[in-house]
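Hi support team,

I've been running sequence recovery on a batch of backbones for a student project. Most finish fine, but this one hangs at about 90% for roughly twenty minutes before it completes. I'm not sure whether the input is malformed or the queue is just slow. I've pasted the structure tokens below so you can try to reproduce it. Let me know if you need the job ID as well.

Thanks,
M.K.
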């Protein structure tokens, strides 16, 4: 299949391109240089010119806190550009998978969010991502919307790489322990997206790795797993703190565990536990030059 990936320089986009190519698909990888999503009038034509069987839209304005002071740019990329991508795909009869986020929820629920649960984003990033979902589905009701969460991988910037750097530099660090969710390795997300498109799925799906944790417990696991794999460790202590002691411009949902019941029925394989995937990712990172 010919598959076009936007945001091909981002952490999920890069991994997706590698995994699709390893599965012998013909991949068109578009970075910001080839497709600037802030120039919305050029997007549909660019997308349509490639006539890919599938388009996977991994590009997004992902700076959750900065979005609070740049709402226009966040809307332009996450809502207007998402709509323009859908227009481009729709114009020639292609298929679309659009990536979205757990931040469409407000985190007040105490059991895993299903695809039909009420959305209520707390900040600009989540609001614009939700509007992007809605614009996509309005034009292409058969598109796949894949909501994922707590994304990390060997490419780009993420929590795992930040914690690895901090534990090598500092004696002590503090991490919030009252935000609960599930880390998701980009390789696992990309594999799930490949399965969804190969099976021609339609509609909204949730995907994360298995398990539930807090950012604090995730940080401790990064330190312990990193130590076992020979990463440099200085910080002897990681302290749990409440979110109120770590104020951020954008409020964060307290609980965004996503139910994977729907996607399990499609995937046909066991979703990896986040601890196993963390181990695999750190090994891959250690073997690479990307630390
Ligand atoms: N990160 C998370 O924890 C998380 C959680 C849930 C859902 N998601 C979703 O997962 C998807 C992938 O995110 P990610 O973690 O891979 O983020 P990322 O590493 O920040 O990648 C986003 C990509 O979008 C590109 N982009 C941003 N603005 C653009 C513009 N104006 N024109 C063209 N490209 C632009 C970036 O280009 P540059 O490389 O040039 O900056 C980057 O390659 C997004 O839909 C995101 O909302 C992420």
């Amino acid at each position: 299949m010919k598959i076009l990936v936007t945001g091909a320089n981002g952490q999920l986009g890069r991994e997706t391109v590698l995994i699709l190519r390893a599965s012998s698909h013909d991949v068109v990888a578009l970075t910001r240089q080839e497709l600037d999503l802030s120039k919305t009038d050029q997007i549909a034509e660019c997308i349509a010119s490639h006539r890919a069987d599938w388009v996977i839209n991994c590009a997004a304005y992902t700076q959750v806190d900065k979005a609070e002071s740049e709402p226009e740019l966040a809307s332009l990329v996450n809502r207007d550009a998402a709509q323009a991508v859908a227009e481009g795909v729709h114009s020639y009869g292609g298929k679309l998978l659009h990536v979205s986020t757990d931040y469409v929820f407000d985190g007040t629920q105490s059991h895993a969010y299903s695809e039909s649960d009420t959305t209520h984003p707390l900040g600009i990033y989540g609001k614009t991502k939700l509007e992007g979902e809605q614009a996509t589905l309005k034009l292409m009701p058969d598109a796949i919307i894949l909501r994922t969460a707590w994304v990390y991988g060997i490419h780009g910037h993420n929590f795992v790489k930040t914690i690895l750097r901090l534990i090598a530099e500092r004696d002590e660090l503090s991490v919030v322990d009252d935000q609960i969710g599930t880390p998701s390795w980009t390789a696992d997300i990309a594999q799930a997206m490949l399965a969804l498109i190969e099976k021609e799925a339609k509609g909204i799906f949730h995907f994360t790795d298995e398990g539930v944790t807090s950012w604090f417990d995730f940080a401790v696991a990064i330190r312990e797993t990193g130590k076992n794999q020979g990463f440099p460790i200085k910080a002897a202590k990681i302290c749990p703190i409440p979110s109120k002691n770590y104020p951020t411009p954008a409020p964060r949902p307290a609980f965004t565990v996503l139910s994977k019941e729907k996607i399990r029925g499609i995937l046909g394989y066991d979703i990896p536990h986040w601890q196993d995937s963390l181990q695999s990712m750190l090994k891959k990172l250690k073997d690479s030059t990307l630390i």
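--
Follow-up from support: It reproduced on our side and the slowdown came from queue contention, not your input. Residues 64 and 125 are 5 Å apart (CA to CA). No action needed from you.
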